[in-house]
Amino acid sequence: MRSFTAIAALLAGLSLTAVAWAQDPAFDGARLSEHIRILSADDFEGRGIATPAEQKVIDYVSGQFEAAGLQPGGDNGGWTQAVALNRFSASNIQARLTVGDWTLPLAQGEQIVISSRRPGEDHVMLMDAPLVFVGYGVKAPERDWDDFKGQDMRGKILVVLVNDADFEEPALNTFGGRAMTYYGRWTYKYEEAARQGAAGVIIVHETDPASYGWTTVRNSWTGPNFDIVRANADERVPMESWIQRDVAVDLFQHAGLDFEALKVQARSRDFQPVTLEGAGMDVMFDVASQRIETHNIIGRLEGSTHPDETFLYTGHWDHIGVGTPDANGDAIFNGAIDNASGIAGLIELARVYAAGERPERSIVFIGFTAEESGLLGSEYYAANPIYPLATTVGGVNMDSANVYGRTAAFGVVGFGQSDFDERMAVIVEGQGRVIQPDGNPASGTYFRSDHFPLAKRGVPMAYAKSSGAFVEEPIAERLASRDAYTANRYHQAEDEWSADWDYSGQIQDLQVYWSLGQGLANSRDWPQWKDGSEFGPARAATAGERE
Ligand SMILES: [Zn+2]
């Protein structure tokens, strides 16, 4: 216990460079392995939400939390938070674009994908709806940027570009250069369009700025879509859609416009919305919606002196469930790395925290549901927090741990957003590793896991893990295993547990997460967003609630 306190005291203080890395706390690779093996076994059926497997996951994770010594942290003194979701399926889709005499029929999955997540609407019909090109569809007051220029968008279909205004020309540096800001994500485009009162959105798919091809768009949007249950239907537009780039070019041409030239105009603060004169869209489809209930799993260690202030550790327990059989006839998407490995880390953190000296602030451990359906368990928690967000100090999210051994670097997704960068750098350097930004910030990885719904509401969240070169032999073999996961196992039935995994890298990462949380939980310190972060204003709004 001695070194727990020593490290925490050092981290809470200012002489951070003096931290000598200690072996404590003792995270246990054998325990990590066993949790992953159990949670990803075939009898957990790929941990699909609202399936019989869900209760098995809840029983296992809450049982481990209880054995560690946590208290239930969910609704009504229990281990779970009920998460109500709507499942939407669009069918009988008919759509076409017209400009004068020119008509282009749009087939679902081919030229377009159409969906709706608007509650209470079982049929969507838009006839000759006006089309307006709104550039990147961004309203960012802290960047002095407004693509709508106060024009009335009600009842219109917005045609928007994916990513943000300086993706093609990073030197403009209007949205942080090549890294994608949240304004670049499709989720933002839909949210802003709803705030503008639009009838629909058409996102123009381009492979580079989206960072994925049309196949991904088609696979993601032609099946059922989920959303948290929303009391206010106006938070969603009636029609959400993507079209292929070639369709957009064709449409613009028939309306007398040059798509590429308009894209260039959209990179400027002076951009004005452009109505596609004489153009319209007809669209009709049915929407079946069904209410389902799933659960976040929550355990808590109450703080000794400031129990109302909370540090979070999070990871998602769900995976894809049972899908179509692969070439080997395997239909169970076991999700061993994604994200039984993160839940194993969560359980180990709970065990180590509960065994140590009680921190001054509370520590809350959350296994989120429905991450694979669009970060919905975390969205639900962030919209309905059990522990107030204003006094949530910050947190660490874990998704898909490194199971291939120690690496030379520690990669921070969303590097530059918050002072977690500096806080983690001190710890990481004490381990003899270097901290580095995420390798591909243009793809918007920061917006693709469960820390994000919290970050969006102003809670500083870290999302970081081992990266870069392996440091122990057999290096080539380790690298091959990591590459094979990305190429052949990620989101496939072969994401299965292996007895050969090396947890030394994950353990180093857990030590970083632990030191970060332990230091903050025993201080009066509040982590800060950096100047220019799009999440700073949401945090500033509740400054009065933090001492
Ligand atoms: Zn994941």
TrEMBL record:
Alphabetized InterPro entries for the sequence: M28_fam, PA_dom_sf, Peptidase_M28
A GO term for molecular function: aminopeptidase activity
Signal peptide from the UniProt entry: 1-22
Domain Peptidase M28: 296-513
Keywords recorded for this protein, A-Z: Aminopeptidase, Hydrolase, Metal-binding, Protease, Signal, Zinc
SUPFAM superfamilies according to UniProt: PA domain (SSF52025), Zn-dependent exopeptidases (SSF53187)
Chain residue ranges for the region called Disordered: 526-547
A Pfam family hit: Peptidase_M28
Domain of life: Bacteria
Metal-binding among keywords: yes
A GO BP annotation: proteolysis
Name of the protein in question: Peptidase M20
Organism, scientific name: Brevundimonas subvibrioides
Lineage: Bacteria, Pseudomonadati, Pseudomonadota, Alphaproteobacteria, Caulobacterales
